[in-house]
Design a protein that fits this description.
- By secondary structure, the protein is an alpha+beta fold.
- The chain is about 60% helix and about 15% strand.
- The protein has one domain (about 25-85).
- It has helices at about 25-45, 50-60, 65-85, and strands spanning about 5-10, 15-20.
- A hairpin with a 2-residue loop joins strand 1 and strand 2 (about 15-20).
- The chain is elongated.
- InterPro entries: RNaseH_sf (IPR036397).
C-alpha cells in the first residue's frame, strides 16, 4: 500500500502528513473546513483577535447549504466505508 504526503494547514502553519490513499479516515472533513474557512477569513486580513473571531463566526454562519450537504454526504460515505472495512477484517 502506497503512502503519499499531503500538505495540510490552517491559519499560519502548514505541515505534511503521510496519508494512505483511499483511507476511510474522517479527518479530511476537518481539513476541508479549516482550509475553506481560513481562505474566507484571511482574505479579510483580520488585525485583532476579536476581528479574527468575528470573521470566523461569520464565515461559519454563512457556509452555503450545498457545501454542507456535500460534506455531510462525504462523512456518511466515509463512515459506511469504515464499517464495510471493519466487517471484512
Amino acid at each position: 500500500m502506497a503512502i503519499i504526503p499531503i500538505a495540510i494547514g490552517c491559519g499560519f502553519s502548514r505541515m505534511v502528513l503521510q496519508y494512505t490513499p483511499r483511507s476511510p479516515d474522517l479527518t479530511p472533513l476537518d481539513i476541508f473546513f479549516c482550509g475553506y474557512i481560513g481562505e474566507i477569513v484571511f482574505k479579510r486580513d483580520p488585525k485583532t483577535v476579536e476581528s479574527l473571531k468575528e470573521y470566523i463566526t461569520e464565515a461559519m454562519t454563512n457556509i452555503p447549504e450545498q457545501i454542507l450537504q456535500n460534506e455531510l454526504r462525504s462523512v456518511s460515505n466515509r463512515c459506511a466505508d469504515c464499517i464495510r472495512r471493519k466487517e471484512t477484517t
